[in-house]
Design goal:
By secondary structure, the protein is of the alpha/beta class. Among the domains are: 1-33; 38-170, Immunoglobulin-like; 206-325, Chitobiase/beta-hexosaminidase domain 2-like (Chitobiase, domain 2), CATH 3.30.379; 807-869, Immunoglobulin-like (Sandwich), CATH 2.60.40.10. The strands form 9 sheets. Strands 23-20-19-30-29-28-25-24 form an 8-stranded parallel sheet.
Length: 874
Amino acid sequence: MLRKNCNYLALIVSLIYLICLNFGSLGAKVDNSDKFKKLTLKWRLIKNPANESGANKAAFIFINNGPETIKTGKWSLYFNQSFLKPKQPADLANGKIEHLNGDLYRYVPDSSFTLRQGDSISFEYEADGILFNEKYAPQGAYIVYDDSRIIAKDLNISPITDYTNIFPDSEFVATIPTAANQYVINQNIPLLPTDKIGKIIPSPYSIKSGKGGVTLDKNSTIYYSKTLKKEAEYLASLMEKYLGKKLKIKEGNGAEANSITIKTAPLKINGVSAEAYSLTVGEGKGVAITGNDAAGVFYGIQSLSALIPALNRAQIKVESVEISDAPRFSFRSFLLDVSRNFAKKEDVLRLIDLLAMYKINKLNLHLSEDEGWRLEIKGLPELTQIGSKRGHTVDSKNWLTPSYGSGPHPDSENNYGKGFYTREEFKEIIKYADQRHIQVIPEISMPGHARAAIKAMEARYDYFMAKGETEKAKEFRLIDPNDKSVYLSAQMYKDNIVCVALPSVYHFYETVVKDIVAMYQEAGLKLTTFNTGGDEVPNGAWAKSPLCKELMKTLPEIKDARQLQGYFLEKAVAIFEKYNLEVAGWEEIVLNKDSQNNIQVNPKFKDKKVLPLVWDNTGKNIDLGYRIANAGYKVVLCNATNLYFDLSYNSDPTEPGLVWAGYQDAIDPYVMTPFDVFKSINFDKYSRLTEKEEIFGRKSQKIDANMARQYLKREAEKNIVGMQAQLWSETIKGSKMLEYYLAPKLFAFAEKSWSNAPAWESESTISKRVNSIWAGWADISNQIGQREFPRLDFLFNGYNYRIAQPGAVIEDGLLKANVAFPGFTIRYTEDGSEPDVNSKEYTYPVKVNGPIKVRAFNKFGRASKTFIVKQNKI
């Protein structure tokens, strides 16, 4: 009995001990959590180098607001930062920064790290290159401690304001926008009367105004020919926005003076039939739109809409006009990257409506990347289960690593790295686009930019191997597990290239292609073009893959592992041919490269349905598109220096966007000369029109001035089939930022890709060309400010287009101000407060006193950033 009681007591004591131990352990973890929760994190840029070959200096500042001392141990600070290459000098104190993968880094404290209550520690480090703006600062910070516990942290980024100390390059500092230098630029853009500017963007081939007009009201009828019911329904929905009532549609011809008639008939304008249209508005005759095809009718509808004031009213008067129009290029495309940061279906549909307004006829959806897979594929659920999420992970077995500040928690509300389109949503998108005569071109990137697919298929491999189903595990595997190749991709990934020697890679790709083709068929559509990506395979890829080495033994014509990229395309083209698809891809799909990145055009695919999209016109590659076109390929120009909408509008350090290919303001697409790119290289990397032509233009690297340029041959002009603007999503977080980058840049792109070439494109004298460019841009800027921005607000119920800051100076006590897009209201204050909708309106030079601040406002009260105006500075 005593022994039994002793055993019982021992058991009770043991349980109490275990409970206390667990509570003590839990308590310690809670204390640890509180300790890191009360840690404040700041970051500041200390100084940039004078040029991009140097290193910037920055610092993390740790501030302990809690009662416990924080020391080194099992904790690290994780963060994302674009284009950071940290240096690790031997005397670095308090820790080090490690590159993990992509843009993910971590700070690891060393044994000297001791942070007592109320104290702070500044950890200074250097990294290669210039940090141009605040968007290059670290983001998405979080702390991981005890190996698995995670705390997301707010990272306080010190604003970049002390330009002189932070940016040693005086030329760069001189380009940072101020009220004074913007005033000088805006003087090229005077306010023009509405009857002296163009009526439509993009400009029609021919437009003649007449007398009188046609009045449309709720009693007007839309008449359509048999094959145009879809266009008639679209027109009725559009007119409802203006009139508040959907108009009747009726098959046949109408003769009423207030009717709209749409029909097709053979038409050729400026030698072009496809998508050509005529639009006639005649008093007593109604509105007539004739298209060579349904697309032409649709574009005539868009031109009619552009002629209608952006107001909702019971009656609309459309002035008499005769328009004949056809596109300059048949391929007018816009790329939206939904992989790096996701765009919801509703945002894509809204984008499609915008593209349709400005006669863009292709939407290249970038659906896969290292950072995300965004489309459900039948039979491969892992692609979206694993590849459509980002969060903290050490092995990417459940989701991908954080990128672009997506944070540690894969399902958090502000994680723009999560999301995908179901098959039904994708079908809705492509049908919606088709109704607006936009072809959606899906892009699934291979063999590079493929990390999301690789990690998803590795998860699939592990799952079936655990079940003992080896063949199923290997069926879609994308990597050689014994590959020891060392490389670093353009986006700093170490593991984003598929193994081109594996048959399972091509089986995977065909499975994806086949299902996407099926989605189009299920939507009642036919997929004709597929984008394979195909670029930026880094040096070192495949070089130490046993499987690739064995493959190369069977391919004596391949002397360098880099040439396996061409082998992959050859295999991919065979897949696409099975489905009668044209394969588009970045220029590298038709280039041969060696280990030194020397390139030659590969003639192998010239007679295949292969369409290179040429983005790299930087440095010595300024004529790369022409080299490919001259070799006989059809080419789409995607010039990074003019058509990458994610590039920052200007050098203001608070302006979002990347800058690697220069700055890109709204005018940049307009100054691009598709058939002679050398005529626009006097538009420098700071978006300044100059009268100095620099060899090879914007890239800072020095190129041999005697290096032979390859001009576009006259007989090869037909090979330039179009243009594509790109919006990559590294810095896009939500629909507002998407719209900010889109407008006003899209207007100039639409003008350049649809409208006839302006006369200045053939002007050889630089000074005359610059003057003509400014004259043409003044017209377009007035159209944008006075008409297009109000149209977007009206038709989209508000649009987050970028409102440029006004220019302003004070001369002899007089405030003088102007805007980049005439049509905005300038308001100012004299007491140092921020201008708002109730502040004084500037209309003409006025006497002022005190600290002057100015902003530009639209009619809804949305405003630009503020400029401070200083005395007597121009």
